[in-house]
Inverse folding.
């Protein structure tokens, strides 16, 4: 096996994969055959990786713990040995933008991976198909407002896919980081999206994780968006069993997502703060929020439209994330109004 790390990389893999750690891990493999070489493939192909590692199954987090643990500790700034706690109680918060002047949409997503299947960067086609069937069986039983239909990628023509992608309802092939890690294997087979009739509830199947569960609407009603997600999770978890452990909470293929796996955020138009970015950054830093481009990770800010979401996912509960985002949004909107 040849592991040649890109010397110039600032990734957390290059930082934490010392000679000793490499020696300890290079011959190891999980029961399903996931190796260190596969775990850091993305970093070897992309020296500009920020993190550079993916787990291929839940066991990877134990087998390769000497590398995952320091990366997780640095990324999540998490105290060692602390248990992850969960709280999917709905919260009653004021509307952060009652005048509907700034917030264009609110979105909360979590990731889940089923027990007994490899993650989607390390799954064979037959298992991917089996997984898709199991998940769809559970999704079509969702009640009330969550009721909807599953649309498999291969059942749609190019024009339909394009339309759904524009509405942000669909996902395409993964980026170059995901591609190098193996997430695009067998694309487009056994992938798809379930969405409710009002499209406010969506589940991506077999993307970066087995499930990406999304509650979204074009409003600033954070409480309603979170309540819908909580209802959906309660229902889905009565049919499916997900990978989870006491220390790291729910396990995901990318270690940046473990814990609650939650990203709760808004698209918000901030014309004045766009010209005073240092004020915005001071507020987002204070509330532990992350600014992404208008179209998501590693994209530009268009028309002063920011994607602002929680940075912390581990060592915090789901409801605390929502409350913290709410406090941050009140501060941001206040600053925008005062400029
Ligand atoms: C990387 O290592 O840069 C990619 N695999 C993406 C990691 C997740 N994104 C992030 O931390 N911003």
């Amino acid at each position: 096996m040849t592991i040649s790390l890109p010397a110039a990389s600032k990734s957390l893999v290059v930082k934490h994969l010392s000679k000793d750690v490499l020696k300890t891990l290079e011959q190891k493999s999980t029961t399903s055959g996931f190796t260190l070489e596969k775990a850091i493939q993305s970093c070897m192909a992309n020296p500009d990786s920020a993190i550079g590692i993916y787990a291929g199954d839940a066991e990877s987090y134990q087998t390769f713990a000497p590398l995952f643990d320091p990366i997780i500790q640095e990324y999540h700034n998490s105290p060692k040995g602390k248990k992850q706690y969960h709280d999917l109680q709905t919260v009653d918060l004021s509307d952060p933008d009652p005048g509907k002047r700034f917030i264009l949409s609110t979105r909360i997503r979590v990731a889940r991976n089923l027990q007994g299947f490899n993650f989607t960067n390390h799954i064979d086609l037959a298992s991917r198909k089996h997984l898709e069937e199991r998940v769809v069986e559970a999704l079509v039983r969702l009640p009330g407002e969550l009721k909807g239909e599953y649309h498999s990628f291969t059942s749609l023509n190019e024009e339909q896919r394009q339309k759904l992608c524009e509405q942000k309802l669909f996902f395409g092939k993964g980026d170059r980081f995901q591609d190098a890690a193996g997430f695009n294997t067998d694309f487009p087979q056994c992938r798809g999206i379930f969405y409710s009739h009002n499209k406010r509830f969506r589940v991506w199947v077999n993307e970066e994780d087995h499930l990406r569960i999304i509650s979204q609407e074009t409003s600033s009603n954070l409480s309603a968006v979170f309540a819908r997600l909580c209802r959906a999770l309660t229902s889905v978890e009565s049919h499916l069993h997900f990978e989870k452990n006491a220390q790291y909470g729910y396990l995901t293929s990318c270690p940046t997502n473990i814990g609650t796996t939650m990203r709760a955020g808004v698209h918000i138009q901030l014309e004045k703060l766009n010209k005073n970015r240092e004020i915005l950054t001071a507020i987002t830093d204070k509330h532990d929020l992350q600014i992404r481009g208008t179209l998501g990770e590693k994209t530009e800010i268009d028309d002063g439209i920011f994607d602002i979401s929680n940075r912390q996912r581990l060592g915090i509960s789901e409801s605390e994330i929502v409350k913290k985002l709410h406090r941050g949004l009140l501060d941001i909107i206040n600053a925008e109004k005062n400029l």
The pocket of citrulline is lined by residues 42, 49-52, 177, 254, 256, 297 (CB under 6 Å). The chain has a mean pLDDT of 94.
